[in-house]
Amino acid sequence: MTASASALIHRNQIIALATRLRLPNVYPFRYYPSHGGLASYGPDQIDQYKRAAGYVDRILKGENPADLPVQAPTRYELVVNLKTARALGLELPATLLARADEVIE
Question: Model pTM?
Answer without folding.
Answer: 0.81
